[in-house]
Specification:
Elements lengths: L6 H18 L3 H7 L4 H9 L18 H14 L1 H21 L2 H12 L5 E4 L15 E5 L2 E12 L6 E7 L9 E7 L5 E5 L11 E12 L3 E2 L5 H37 L1 E2 L2 E2 L4 H29 L5 H25 L1 H4 L6 H11 L6 H13 L1
Parallel strand pairs: 1-4
Antiparallel strand pairs: 2-3, 3-7, 4-5, 5-8, 6-7, 9-10
Helix pairs in contact: 1-4, 4-5, 4-7, 5-6, 5-7, 7-8, 7-9, 7-11, 8-9, 9-11, 9-12
Bound molecules: flavin-adenine dinucleotide.
Flavin-adenine dinucleotide binds next to helix 5, strand 1, strand 3 and helix 12.
Length: 379
Amino acid sequence: MDFTINENQKMIAQMVKDFAEKEIRPNVMHWDENEIFPIDVMKKMGELGLLGIFIPQEYGGSGFGYFEYMAALIELGKVCGGIALSVAAHNSLCTGHIYYHGSEEQKRKYLPKLATGEWIGAWGLTEPNTGSDAMRMKCVAHKDGNEWVINGTKTWITHGLSGDVAVVLVRTGELLDSNGITAFIVEKGTPGFSAVKIKNKLGVRASETAELIFDNVRIPESNVIGEVGQGFKQAMKVLDGGRISIASVSLGIAKGAYEASLKYAKEREQFGQPIANFQAIAFKLADMATEIEAAELLTLKAADLKNRGEKVTKEGAFAKYYASEVAVKCGNEAVQIMGGYGFTKEFPAEKYLRDSKLMTIGEGTSEIQKLVIARNILN
Ligand SMILES: Cc1cc2nc3c(=O)[nH]c(=O)nc-3n(C[C@H](O)[C@H](O)[C@H](O)COP(=O)(O)OP(=O)(O)OC[C@H]3O[C@@H](n4cnc5c(N)ncnc54)[C@H](O)[C@@H]3O)c2cc1C
């Protein structure tokens, strides 16, 4: 494996860094405090090619691989975990599901809009009573002539309200049958389809989260992704790739927290010297640097396998599990290193800590990653 940073990664990292410093950093606390999802910023990122990073150019995307995708998410995560999460969800979940499992007709219809940011995408698996245990989902669809009729609720859906299109996983067979779930493309404005914003989140508050409600929503047969009954298997593959993106956002948060801590520790003086001189603080920084390096190598390995078209179930779980826990640890240590100042919104540490926590929950909790890893190493 050669993880030398290539020219595209450097170019993307610099472009995203410049964009984030100009368009995101000055507004992060305003969006965070007021729970504003800046859709205009998403559109601008679409123009820059950041909303279809691994989508081939023939479908309107940037045609890059997962190394470049990682580079973009890391730079965004350093500045705002919420915006980085939105970009990850848009690319990997909705857009990724259609790209990896959709028909040629569906790809031609939806990918150019999604990859350029003309449309924002959402992806709905989770329900109020079924999160980790997604196979027990209650949202159902039955066939009526040439149409499917969906009834039920999805919750915690990123871009559920502002999204122009959603891929939703719905029960079309028996409970607990892994061949009993189907993926549907549902466009905003379809009669019976509505959404309600979820407020008062701990972190990633600039990323919109919503509940989706389906009340006799009629969907044409042409909006079924792949074969009827194959949705759950598709979703698990989508999540395998998605976990590389959450690991990348986690890395961005961890690096942002580390860099802010390093700067602060060199500048802040106590007992007549910079606090970085105290071994207790220097060792915190050493741990953060070591764990970030390890998390990055795990994520690069998973990205490398994904670029080669290989299965990444175990490696994606390794990367997501470890990088997300490192992000929480780095956010926590950043607050500690900054002392009382770290405990205020005047300094970035508290936001890194709040945003980091979602990374151990979304797209499968840390406990579920351990289940995935255990299943892979035991079988
Ligand atoms: C901000 C945000 C954005 C999100 N975006 C999306 C989205 O775009 N699309 C989408 O579909 N979902 C989304 N989610 C949902 C997310 O994926 C779920 O919250 C997550 O999968 C956990 O499900 P749950 O919240 O129901 O927790 P539960 O499944 O109820 O878990 C509760 C606790 O029990 C533990 N647990 C559960 N089962 C086991 C087990 N077998 N062994 C050990 N421990 C277990 C969990 O690890 C956790 O600690 C989002 C969530 C948030 C908060």
